[in-house]
Write a structure and sequence with these properties.
By secondary structure, the protein is α+β, with helices and mostly antiparallel strands. The chain contains six helices and 24 strands. Helix 3 packs antiparallel against helix 4 and helix 3 packs parallel to helix 5. The radius of gyration is 30 Å and the shape is flat.
């Protein structure tokens, strides 16, 4: 599912360009009006475009790293402690981590020397400034020259009333046999002059949510569990774009409908819901305004249909706020017309009966040798069931796991029949596995 969400998120980059361009003159819905520098808030002028970098440099000796600390106006920031993290990766010896520190001089430069130009060694520079952590991308050292790391240290705020932060949310729903797997991607856009470190920014998971997980990204901007029913944003959000992803599951009771409500963090300016829709399933989604704005839920735009990399039908609904619209507080998602999970169980029960009947036909208890025509007829029945099973999966009537288990039993039954026709024992695990593998290729 992670790959499917990432692929669709790439399409959303087109919208992000619009959002970033608009954010310089138009704040996210619900954000207070920008004020002048004189009252201590962000101005409505376009923020500077700071750019951190890691660059090989002949002026730094081999095995050396010079770290240049700068503010938003490219002026040196001295007196800060700089940490250099070192990670040596080895399959045979295991990973080994080390750390060094150095103080930046009045020119904002901290120097590290006599480091190993080892391709297995990865370096990363970090600086703590208040509650924020500024970090470089991981890098390695070559053998001919050192490296210059340019890192910007900016003012820090946790107050959303002072930070120019907007977000775009994407929810991806994948129906599975026993659960609904749900992945959420939040693109956090900071278009201000300050770094935002969220405090108390949390939102609700749907009732019954379980198996929460949040993968680590390249920075410490992340989502974390805030108790059993809530998600909180943590980390450092420098000016720029920061993707934050988390996943959870909802129980699949086997019914034809899924409905849930997911809370949203503040300043979500665009919302997209995507759902894999087997068979004739339908998607509807609506946005609920954040209190105290109130008002009724607003449907997301008309649902569009597309196909993911696995050939599955995916429905998409989206909404982009405009100036004056109330801020989004949550999104309600409903999938209807889902294939009942009982269909998969029906296949399992029917399969068990079918295999038993074929087994009786193959043995003909007390009737002497088995006729080849009986074996041929039994095999044709099983092969037809394999085709029906594959069609049921393609049509969304059963899930992948039910299909895999049932198909494995059918192919094994065909293998036993063919072994009996050749008067070869098929009970041994090795012989059964080899026969089933050959039969699977033949049935395919």
């Amino acid at each position: 599912m992670r790959g499917a969400l990432a692929a669709f998120a790439a399409v959303a980059l087109v919208a992000s360009v619009r959002l970033e361009a608009r954010a310089e003159t138009e704040l996210p819905a619900g954000h207070p009006p920008a004020r002048s520098e004189g009252d201590g808030a962000e101005s409505d002028a376009a923020p500077p475009r700071v750019q951190d970098s890691v660059t090989p440099s002949a002026r730094v000796p081999a095995g050396g790293i010079d770290v240049e600390l700068l503010d938003a106006a490219e002026r040196p920031v001295g007196g800060r402690e700089v940490r250099l993290g070192m990670l040596r990766q080895s399959v045979s010896e295991g990973d080994r981590r080390e750390q060094r520190t150095a103080a930046a001089d009045p020119e904002g430069i901290a120097r590290f020397r006599e480091l190993a130009p080892d391709g297995r060694m990865s370096y990363r520079v970090t600086v703590l400034e208040g509650k924020a952590e500024y970090a470089s991308q991981p890098f390695s050292l070559g053998g001919e020259s050192g490296v210059v790391v340019r890192l910007h240290v900016l003012p820090v705020t946790s107050d959303l009333r002072r930070a120019l932060v907007g977000m775009r949310g994407t929810v991806y729903v994948e129906p599975r046999d026993d659960v609904f797997a749900i992945e959420v991607l939040l693109d956090v856009f900071n278009v201000g002059r300050s770094t935002w470190v969220p405090e108390g920014v949390a939102f609700a998971l749907p009732p019954g949510a379980k198996a929460f997980a949040a993968p680590e990204g390249e920075t410490d901007a992340r989502a974390v569990a805030d108790g059993p029913t809530r998600v909180a944003l943590r980390g450092t959000y420098t000016p720029g774009q920061h993707p934050v992803t988390f996943r959870f599951q909802l129980p699949n009771a086997g019914g034809a409908r899924l409905a849930f409500e997911l809370g949203l963090p503040p300043h979500v300016a665009e919302m997209r819901v995507m759902a894999e829709a087997p068979g004739g399933a339908t998607l509807s989604a609506r946005a609920v305004p954040r209190a105290p704005a109130g008002g009724g839920a607003v449907p997301l735009a008309a649902v569009e249909s597309m196909t993911n990399a696995r050939g599955q039908r995916v429905l998409v609904a989206s909404r982009q706020l405009r100036q004056g619209d109330p801020e989004l507080g949550s999104v309600v998602v409903e999938l209807a017309g889902l294939p009942a999970r009982g269909d998969g169980r029906w296949w399992a029960v029917g399969l068990a009966g079918l295999v038993a009947v074929v087994g009786v036909a193959g043995r003909r208890r007390g009737a002497g040798p088995v006729e080849g025509a009986d074996l041929d007829a039994a095999e044709r029945v099983l092969v037809r069931e394999v085709a029906r099973l594959d069609a049921a999966l393609a049509g969304g009537a059963i899930g992948p796991r039910s299909h895999e288990a049932a198909r494995r039993e059918l192919v094994a039954a065909v293998a036993r029949l063919r072994a009996q026709r050749r008067r070869e024992p098929a009970a041994g695990p090795g012989a059964r596995g080899e026969a089933a593998a050959g039969t699977a290729r033949a049935v395919d």
